[in-house]
């Protein structure tokens, strides 16, 4: 794949030469000395931070270097200077370079970890942050918003950094455009590795956001190039472009649950990017298109199986005369020379059309403006297993022109344009996931300005004599690959650190408590058969498994603790298997911290009997579970079941991403068995996943004031089938959301109320 090496190599050489040529190196070992060095710095100075932990420091790096002699703030040894505690860094001035700092074990006291601005008088221009790491430097309270890197000024660069693990509210990287001094900025975000961002459970979890609704018609000219977005799952928008004239080139989106979204703004270029999905997820997306004038060329999509907002190519309907913060109509967009390999229904048009919801939405929210003057040409769709519905339309597709697109199986979609042609195509897998046609095709559509598409995905020249449909022109180098992770991020931080687990054998209550305290992440505590009496809560603050040594002889844990059996902390991941948990009806089985649940937790329960508790799971506002999974288990004689219902501000947030109940029995639950809530109308908060299959509910719900056994209001993805409901004294078992395709499967209902389907669910508007 082609890379913008010229910019990066020049930058690295320039920094290296200048560090060697420094005439004034100043080593500092504390914040006071650092402040003095910064205050007296001049062009060409190299300020060296001594190795060690710099705790609770707020650094204001100000100075005026020159292009030839920048002022550099660097680690004595790259990676050995850690910024920890309540700390941040602000840059202001010109030609400053920050090199090799490591932010961890803390959070910012302000709105940003690194900000290219000190105040309104000291804005950064021509400044660079490189070879730095920000690792889980996230707010204790997930609802507190911040940005890890915030751009102001002009011509600033974020290059060769590793950013991983942001779990709180707010984009990881934000481009600010308020004021003339911050527009036409030409910022560079290049060669970075954006490591896994955990699912947030609501909006405002973007990895990069360029502008906002208020500045969305402002020229930015930011270049986002040669970055790796590695499992960036914060929300449906990995990149949210909300300004004009931005370019997205040669990035890799690897198994990231979202899309590159042209949310606001016009005239973006999306060229040469890779979107890699898999067979296991329908949440991994591609490109979503809104607004006007975009060119989408030379991109490669592999196994993108998402639907609607997360489809490989999602072209939206707009709102007539849309306000700035909503959806403008798609017009004058070119989609050309892209390859869609083994993608499910890759082209989806008029996504978001919601005319059917007009009875619950105001007229100003109805997306009825179809795409116009959109050209889709010279693209390749190839499927090893035929996909007979490559085009999905949610409205008429009368504003899209299709020219010379090739597919290798029959198109049986409702939309059958002449410009999508079925032909026998042979391909070769050159390397992992890289499929290339065996022959070039030179008889191509030549549209307006198509002569400006002079390169292919790998940077090879497209000519009248050597061209091809799709992203790639033959010949392809034998060593060509889609992803080379060594090309992204720092050259010093190990992103593949894997801990090995061990098994700890336990036979007494005291040994269990000790083992849980001393175990490392991912260790397994194996319990011998017997009774374990516990008068205090078990604290779960790491990934840990507690299992039976013999699955046929289940140990029993009997709790007399006051509040809860298990107290779950941030990053706690608890797996329980082949156990019996018994309470005294005064405590919950599982409870999250009341506050500061800064990171997600997980709960996996298999073949466990849970009995005689208040709530089985009681969570706090701001807490978030990536997964709650209960299989092959029994829950009985409890006051309430699983209470994932504390995000009631109707802002699109919710308390868990995946909730799974399979082959589990609920008996004699006095109130609600499950309360799983997401409020607020906003399509960018598509989320919440409930699977309820093969379960049995008996004698439950008699004290539930709403007379509903299972509450799942606002949860979008619901599978509800093959369950048995017997003798539950409620009016309704559940209310399903018809507009989202929810419908009860084959359930058995005996003396238990009914399952109701509401087509259009009325939700509070969020804006």
Automatic annotation (TrEMBL):
Gene3D superfamilies in UniProt: Single-stranded right-handed beta-helix, Pectin lyase-like
Every DUF4957 domain range: 530-644
This protein's UniProt keywords: Lyase, Signal
Pfam families for this protein: Chondroitinas_B (PF14592), DUF4957 (PF16318)
An example molecular function term from Gene Ontology annotations: lyase activity
Alphabetized SMART domains for the sequence: PbH1
Segments crossing the lipid bilayer: none
InterPro entries: DUF4957, PbH1, Pectin_lyas_fold, Pectin_lyase_fold/virulence, PL-6
Keyword Metal-binding: no
Signal sequence range: 1-21
CDD domains the record matches: PL-6 (cd14251)
Domain of life: Bacteria
The protein's name in its UniProt record: Poly(Beta-D-mannuronate) lyase
């Amino acid at each position: 794949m082609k890379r913008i090496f010229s910019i990066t190599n020049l930058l690295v050489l320039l920094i290296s030469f200048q560090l060697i040529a420094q005439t004034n190196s100043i080593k500092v070992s504390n914040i006071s000395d650092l402040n003095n060095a910064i205050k007296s710095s001049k062009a060409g100075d190299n300020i060296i931070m001594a190795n060690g932990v710099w705790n609770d420091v707020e650094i204001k790096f100000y100075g005026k270097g020159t292009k030839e002699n920048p002022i550099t703030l660097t680690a004595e040894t790259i990676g050995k200077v850690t910024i920890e505690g309540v700390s941040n860094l602000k840059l202001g001035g010109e030609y400053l370079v920050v090199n090799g700092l490591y932010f961890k074990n803390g959070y910012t006291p302000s709105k940003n970890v690194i900000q290219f601005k000190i105040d309104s008088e000291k804005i950064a221009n021509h400044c660079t942050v490189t070879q730095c790491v920000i690792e889980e430097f996230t707010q204790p309270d997930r609802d507190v918003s911040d940005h890890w890197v915030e751009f102001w000024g002009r011509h600033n660069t974020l290059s060769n950094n590793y950013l991983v693990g942001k779990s709180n509210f707010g984009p990881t990287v934000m481009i600010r455009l308020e004021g003339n001094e911050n527009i036409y900025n030409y910022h560079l975000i290049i060669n970075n590795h954006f490591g896994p961002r955990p699912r947030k459970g609501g909006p405002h979890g973007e990895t990069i956001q360029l502008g906002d609704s208020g500045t969305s018609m402002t020229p930015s000219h930011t270049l986002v190039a040669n970055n790796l977005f590695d499992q960036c799952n914060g929300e449906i928008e990995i990149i949210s472009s909300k300004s004009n004239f931005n370019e997205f080139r040669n990035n890799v989106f690897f198994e990231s649950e979202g899309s590159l979204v042209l949310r606001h703004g016009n005239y973006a270029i999306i060229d040469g990017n890779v979107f890699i999905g898999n067979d296991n997820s329908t949440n991994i997306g591609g490109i979503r298109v809104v607004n006007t004038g975009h060119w989408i060329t030379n991109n490669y999509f592999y196994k993108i199986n998402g639907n609607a907002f997360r489809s490989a190519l999602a072209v939206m309907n707009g709102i007539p005369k849309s306000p700035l913060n909503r959806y403008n109509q798609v017009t004058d967009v070119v989609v050309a020379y892209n390859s869609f390999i083994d993608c499910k229904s890759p082209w989806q048009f008029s996504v978001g059309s919601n005319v059917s919801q007009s009875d619950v939405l105001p007229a100003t929210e109805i997306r009825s403006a179809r795409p116009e003057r959109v050209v889709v040409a010279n693209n390749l769709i190839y499927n090893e297993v035929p996909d007979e519905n490559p085009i999905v339309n949610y409205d008429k597709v009368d504003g899209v022109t299709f020219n010379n697109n090739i597919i290798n199986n029959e198109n049986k979609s409702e939309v059958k344009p002449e410009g999508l042609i079925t032909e026998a195509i042979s391909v070769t897998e050159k390397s992992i996931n890289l499929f290339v046609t065996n022959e070039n095709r030179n008889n191509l559509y030549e549209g307006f300005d198509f002569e400006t598409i002079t390169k292919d995905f790998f940077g090879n020249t497209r000519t009248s004599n050597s061209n091809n449909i799709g992203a790639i022109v033959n010949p392809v180098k034998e060593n060509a690959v889609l992803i080379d992770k060594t090309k992204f991020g720092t050259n010093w931080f190990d992103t593949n650190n894997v801990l090995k687990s061990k098994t700890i054998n336990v036979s007494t209550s005291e040994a269990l408590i000790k083992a849980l305290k001393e175990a490392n992440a991912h260790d397994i505590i194996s319990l011998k058969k017997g009774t374990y009496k516990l008068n205090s809560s078990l604290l779960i603050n790491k990934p840990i498994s507690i299992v039976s040594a013999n699955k046929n002889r289940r140990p029993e844990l009997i709790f007399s603790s006051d509040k809860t059996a298990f107290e779950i902390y941030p990053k706690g991941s608890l797996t329980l298997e082949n156990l019996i948990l018994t309470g005294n009806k005064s405590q919950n089985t599982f409870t999250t911290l009341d506050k500061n649940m800064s990171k997600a937790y997980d709960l996996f329960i298999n073949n466990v009997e849970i009995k005689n508790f208040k709530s089985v799971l009681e969570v706090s506002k701001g807490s978030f579970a990536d997964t709650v999974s209960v299989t092959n288990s029994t829950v009985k004689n409890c006051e309430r079941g699983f209470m994932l219902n504390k995000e009631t501000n109707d802002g699109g947030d919710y308390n868990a991403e995946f909730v799974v109940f399979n082959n589990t029995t609920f008996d004699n639950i006095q109130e609600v068995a499950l309360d799983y809530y997401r409020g607020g109308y906003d399509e960018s908060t598509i989320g919440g996943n409930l699977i309820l299959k093969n379960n049995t509910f008996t004698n439950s719900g008699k004290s539930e004031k709403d007379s509903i056994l299972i509450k799942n209001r606002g949860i979008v993805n619901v599978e509800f089938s093959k369950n048995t409901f017997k003798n539950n004294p409620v009016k309704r078992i559940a209310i399903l959301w018809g507009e989202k395709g929810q419908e009860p499967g084959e359930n058995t209902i005996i003396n238990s109320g009914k399952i109701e389907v509401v087509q259009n669910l009325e939700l509070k508007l969020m804006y």
